[in-house]
Amino acid sequence: MKEAALDRERIEREVRKLGPWFHNMDLGGVQTAPGHFLGDYPRIKYQGFAHALEADLRGKSVLDIGCNAGFYSLEMKRRGAARVVGVDSDDHYLAQAELASEVTGLEIELRKMDVYEVAALGEKFDVVIFMGVLYHLRHPLLALDLIHDHVLKPTGTLLFQSMQRGAKDVVEPRDDYPFEETKIFDDPRWPKMHFVEKSYSHDWTNWWIPNRACVEGMLRSSGFRIEANPEPEVYMCAVADTVPRAVGMGTRSKAWLPKENGR
Description:
Strand order of the largest sheet: 5-4-3-6-7-11-10
Order of helices and strands: HEEHEHEHEEHEEEHEE
Structural class: alpha/beta
Strand content: 15-25%
Distance between the termini: 50 Å
Number of helices: 6
Largest sheet: 7 strands, mixed
Shape: globular
Number of strands: 11
Oligomer: single chain
Radius of gyration: 20 Å
C-alpha cells in the first residue's frame, strides 16, 4: 500500500474538479457525493451483500467491469486482493478512480475499455464484478457471454447486479411450448426485458431493464450457476458444471466478431 500524497485542501480541490461523482466515497475525510439521491451510495448497497463475498482475497485477482469511481475495486484491495483491474469506457470515471486510488493508497490498475472488449485483456480472473452495467448496454446477453467465455476462471466468482423492474415472482418455464401457446407471455412472472427507447431516470444510457425472472434466466443461459442472492438485485454466481444449449463462441458469438478481409 502506498501513502496518500495529497493533503485535505488539495483533495477537496481535486474532488470538485472531477465532479459530479456517482460513487460517494470518503477520500481523506472528503465526501465525493454527499448529496447523492440514493444516500451513501454505493456503500449502503455494499453493506447488504458484503458478507457473501470471500473475506480474504490474498493471492486472488479481480476484474471490475464498469468500475466507475472505483468503490468496489478499492473494497477488493481492502480484502487483500493481489491484483485488481478496473475497466470503464468513460474517461471521467477513470480519472475519479485514479484519484481515489492515490488518496487511499490502494493500488488498482485502470484501463479504458468497455465490456465488449474484455477478451483483449487476454487473461481470466478469480473474481469478476459486473455491478450496475447490464441495463446500460444495447447488447446485454452478449456481454454476459463474453464474461463467461473470456475473463472468469472456471473456478471463479461473478458478482452481478442489475436494476430490475416488473414482477419479483418467477415462473418456472417448461422445456418447450407449442407455437399456439401465447398466454404464457402475458404472465408478469415470465422473463421480460423492458426496452427504453428514449430515457429513464434522466439517463439516456438506460436501454434494457429486466425483471427478476429475466435476470436469472440470462445468467443461467450464459453458463452461470446462481449460488446466492444475498441482497435484492445482487447475485453471486459460479461457472456452471454443464453449459446450456447456446454457450460457446463456436455457436453463439461469432456473428458479432468483425469479418476478416471482408469475409
